[in-house]
């Protein structure tokens, strides 16, 4: 078992604490929270050991789980890495690209491993179909949430859209060529609604919409590729796969056949991949433990987290300039 400590005991931090306490791959040593009153309250309520000094906690563990506000990610991660500790860090990896790049350099220098908490990679619906998403040429995502003051310290792109950015980058094997985006502030001082169009060098286009002032919650993505349409509902954990193949010479009475302008006939058929049940947060934490133990690459590396942040910041930059970002 790996000795682990948690930095941050807010809403998500308490979830991490509970799961790490229950995990058979970690030994939870304790946690640190900058708010001493909250830290003592959590310790009294759940029985976890509270450290009032961040360095003391880091020194007693092998893995540091960073679940603090984004602005403090870099400082916390740097302290841990420079002490030779592996880090799990919530998304977005850092506040700036410069900070993220420095963490990448520190990770190599000190020979530790890092993973970023892009939890939708572990969504069972996405996992059920990811291998079938091959060379998509058009992607559309909608991530809508009812208003919650938590997270409004950053633009909706870093709060919500970055989940879809990371998922898209994990299935599109091409460099970003151009970005056009717009964002609107309604309640917060930073944009609450955003739309972005990402064009990749291979011709793929992704259209992303995110809102944190919606009347209903929605987390859906649709992937269009040659002879296939794949829909992923991250919220309901459902998938829909519609494929086409050459029509048989003698189709059955219930076969769905389409004919294009050139006279080619295609048969439409449906697949229903099995969608398992899991705890995505526990899975991301435990697969990180496996990566450390086995010396393998984490599923969402610091490098991948940095790429997602870079695209997110390019989208935000497009808000400011009202022009495309290349």
UniProtKB/TrEMBL annotation:
Source organism per UniProt: Pseudozobellia thermophila
Gfo/Idh/MocA-like oxidoreductase N-terminal domain location: 2-118
UniProt protein name: Predicted dehydrogenase
Span of domain GFO/IDH/MocA-like oxidoreductase: 156-216
Ranges that cross the membrane: none
GO molecular function: nucleotide binding
Source organism phylogeny: Bacteria, Pseudomonadati, Bacteroidota, Flavobacteriia, Flavobacteriales
InterPro entries named among the record's database cross-references: Gfo/Idh/MocA-like_OxRdtase_N (IPR000683), Gfo/Idh/MocA_Oxidoreductases (IPR051450), GFO_IDH_MocA-like_dom (IPR055170), NAD(P)-bd_dom_sf (IPR036291)
């Amino acid at each position: 078992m790996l000795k682990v400590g948690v930095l941050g005991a807010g809403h998500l931090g308490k979830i991490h604490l509970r799961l790490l306490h229950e995990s058979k791959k970690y030994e939870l040593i304790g946690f640190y929270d900058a708010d001493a009153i909250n830290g003592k309250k959590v310790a009294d309520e759940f029985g976890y050991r509270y450290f009032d000094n961040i360095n003391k906690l880091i020194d007693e563990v092998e893995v540091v789980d960073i679940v603090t506000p984004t602005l403090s990610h870099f400082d916390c991660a740097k302290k841990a890495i420079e002490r030779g500790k592996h880090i799990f860090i919530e998304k977005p990896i850092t506040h700036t690209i410069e900070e993220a790049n420095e963490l990448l350099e520190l990770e190599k220098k000190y020979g530790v491993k890092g993973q970023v908490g892009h939890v939708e990679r572990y969504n069972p619906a996405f996992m059920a179909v990811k291998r079938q998403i091959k060379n998509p040429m058009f992607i559309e995502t909608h991530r809508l949430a009812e208003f919650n003051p938590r997270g409004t310290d950053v633009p909706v792109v870093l709060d919500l859209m970055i989940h879809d950015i990371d998922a898209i980058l994990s299935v599109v094997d091409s460099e970003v060529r151009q970005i056009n985006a717009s964002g609107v502030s309604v309640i917060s001082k930073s944009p609450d609604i955003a739309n972005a169009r990402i064009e990749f060098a291979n011709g793929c286009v992704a259209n992303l919409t995110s809102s944190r002032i919606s009347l209903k919650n929605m987390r859906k993505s649709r992937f269009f590729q040659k002879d296939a349409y794949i829909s992923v509902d991250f919220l309901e954990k459902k998938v829909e796969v519609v494929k086409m193949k050459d029509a048989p010479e003698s189709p059955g009475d219930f076969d769905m056949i389409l004919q294009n302008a050139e006279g080619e006939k295609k048969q439409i058929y449906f697949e229903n991949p099995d969608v398992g049940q899991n705890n995505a947060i526990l899975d991301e934490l435990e697969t990180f433990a496996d990566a450390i133990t086995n010396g393998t690459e984490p599923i969402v590396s610091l490098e991948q987290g940095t790429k997602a942040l870079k695209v997110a910041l390019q989208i935000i930059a497009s808000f400011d300039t009202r022009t495309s970002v290349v």
